[in-house]
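User: I'm preparing a small set of examples for a lab meeting where we compare how different chains pack in three dimensions. I only have the primary sequence for this one, and I'd like the structure in token form so I can line it up with the others. Please keep the answer compact; I'll paste it straight into my notes.
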Amino acid sequence: MAETADTDRERAVEFRSVSLGDIEPARSRHMWTRSAVCVAAGGDLVLTGEWDGTVTARETESLETRWTLTHPDHAVGITTLGSDSDSESADAETVVVAGRGETGAIVAYDAATGEQRWRYDTADDIGEATEDTVFYLPYVVGLESATDADGTQRLYAAARRYERDGERREWHSTVYAFDSDGSIGWTYETDASPIAIEADDAGGRLAVGYNRCMGDHDTGLVVLETDTGDLEWTWDPGTEGDRRVGDVSFDGDSIAVSSHGDKRGYLLGPGGAERWRVDLAVETEIDGETLYAYPNHAYANDGRVTFVTGNTYALESRETETRHPNEHRITTFDGDGELRWADEVRGFVHGLAADGTTIVTPSAQNFRVRDPETHAVRRFDLDSGPARVDRFEGIATAAAVDHGTIAAIEESVEYHDEGQTRGEYALRVASLE
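Assistant: Understood. Below is the structure token output for the 433-residue chain.
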């Protein structure tokens, strides 16, 4: 299958930009999630979350600040929760921010003013950090808002914390269902590490993907009833080791799953029945090394399923000069598991953004090759494939697409063998064609 070269779909950059201040430049290897972005209020507002806790709401067209505040922790995730009215204005929405820090705070703010509506500290459930390093901090890894068949709106969240004592390694995690006023409907606790959550379109089921399972909880996917939090069914790739699932995505009664266990993509039906599976970046021997890459993202919509893979790793060594042929790649399949199209994303994708048939990948650095040409926001059409490339000087680390608006975060980067800082910490906003 022929692929479209980046140069064939590059155009003049049309992004409006505003500086986000200072941030420590990223290095050759990709860093943890440090920024978040969200389009809200029917497309009228763009919200940004920063590593120092700053959360800002800006007018989409002018990028003028409507309000700004300081979140209790690093602001690493943002979503919105609507009111019971039909209005899509800022007055009808709540902005919810996920934190990574001492408290693992989930805080709801008024979208029009930034005033705090409610707050919940997940560290009260999953515990406090046992070491003063980022990896040990309580971390809200996912936020998802949904409306059920009765019109009830809820916020779902997943938080986790890691600790290690000698050879003992443990995860503590909780999945939450919040009512719009911040009261808790139910919780689901495990000793595994959640990585992704998504509610189905009807709002009746919540899928939770677990990346690391090294305790009593030994399954990569659980599906919960949203009314009660009761377990409906589970699924697992059935692989050895503690790596299980990378991402989950509903499409009707099907769930797409990217598997970290066997580096494949799956489409599951009700009860976890396997409809099909495809090799994505499975273990492959090249020049005497066994290489693989993790399928990190999945997006399913209207009978199409898209997967995105990440960095190359070697099975028996930490370093390798060789690259897996399917690293940093986006592939889309039809409802029968037949390949529709494929292309490169070239750099590490921290998070996939999608709205209907539009898919956006914020492509950061590729630490194996350290090529600044990988820094870009790439757009794809779910049906036809590659659509556009907008290059950044720095790395693209977060993106959002909604209501005809695309927003992305650029972070500066300094490769270890260059001594040159590329790009800046900035918000980029554009209109979809």
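A couple of notes for your slides: The domain at 16-431 is CATH 2.130.10.10 (Methylamine Dehydrogenase; Chain H). Residues 123-126 form the longest helix (4 residues).

User: Perfect, thanks.
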